[in-house]
Amino acid sequence: MSAALPRTGREVRLTAVPEGLPAPADFTVAEVPLPAPGPNQVLVRNRQFLVFGGLRTLVGGAARDTPVPGIRPGEALFGPAVGEVVAAPEGSALRPGDLVTHLLGWREYALVPVAQCAAVDPALPDPVAHLSSGSAAYGALTRLTGVREGDVVLVTGAAGGVGSLAGQIARLLGAARVIGTTGSPDKAGRLVSELGYDAALTAGFRAADGSGAEHREARRAFTEQLAAAAPDGIDVLLDTTGGPQLTAAVDAARQGARFALVGALSGQLAAAGGGGRAPVEVDAFRLIVKGVTLKGYTGVDHPDVEREWTGRFAHWLRSGRIRFPLTRIPGIDRAPLALQELIAGERFGTVVVELPHG
Length: 358
Prior knowledge:
Residues 20-353 form the Enoyl reductase (ER) domain. This protein has two domains: 2-131 and 324-354, Quinone Oxidoreductase, Chain A, domain 1 (Alpha-Beta Complex), CATH 3.90.180; 134-301, Rossmann fold (3-Layer(aba) Sandwich). The chain has ten helices and 15 strands. The chain has helices at 55-59, 134-145, 163-172, 185-195, 213-229, 243-251, 265-268, 284-289, 305-318, 335-343, and strands at residues 8-14, 27-33, 41-51, 81-87, 99-102, 109-113, 118-119, 152-155, 177-182, 199-202, 234-239, 253-261, 293-296, 326-330, 350-354. β8 (152-155), α3 and β9 form a beta-alpha-beta unit. The longest helix is centred in the middle third of the chain and has 17 residues, at 213-229. The protein starts with 7 loop residues before the first strand and ends with a strand.
């Protein structure tokens, strides 16, 4: 059987720590030998893997206290993937042909410890839905903030993988009004027309390092947009950006507002630094007098969320109550460019690279 197994496969490797934001020249697609699976390993041929902005921190040389380790030059990138089992050890519940999820994307073939593979849930209408970032949005909204009937909810970075589902989830949980932020009028229109946002605000800044007059004007304009969209303030914030948008959200907080921080893209996607810091100025006095709770969300702290989310996501998808915006990029050779385009804000919703299978 081992003679029939592939001997090589391609993977995306980091060639150098990027100077500024990652570019395709910082990566290479290398063909590497595939050792035979060990006694507790599964060989998986990947079908799709996720492209996500957090990779900027992992490759930027500034990852510290992150749930997963940073990536050094010469190492392969990694991330959520869906693939087909090619070979599994005897006694395993997995069999060749089974579809599984794991965290060794960014390569054609992955040798994955059996314990780190999970069978694809057939309840989802398309296996690629396992690569959605909706569990982070769902976990933050159910475990940290709660959503009560009548709440006004603000989602920053609403056109990304998390945000494009977060607003819809908030509505399904009972929110009365859902407001999103994004970087372009085109995306703002799609948030309203396709995803049911009541209003979408165009933030004129993406990085936390802006301090000039243009940046201050953009911040003022955004604060005015938010005040117009939520004249009585906001009850819930699901924040993926940090930076000036978080500052404005604190200013708009109603009594007892609940804030969940899911991302910090203002710092992670800043051209300066390595993506490992996201400083922000907030009004501590307002946090106190308004009784605002502000918590960070990571999935590792809430291991029960994934299964619960998958069940609800499957039901909502099949009933047509939620949409899953998805951009499919064909071929591993295009993966480095896909990451650059996502960081530049050129994509909408979840972005995956698809690998040929037959």
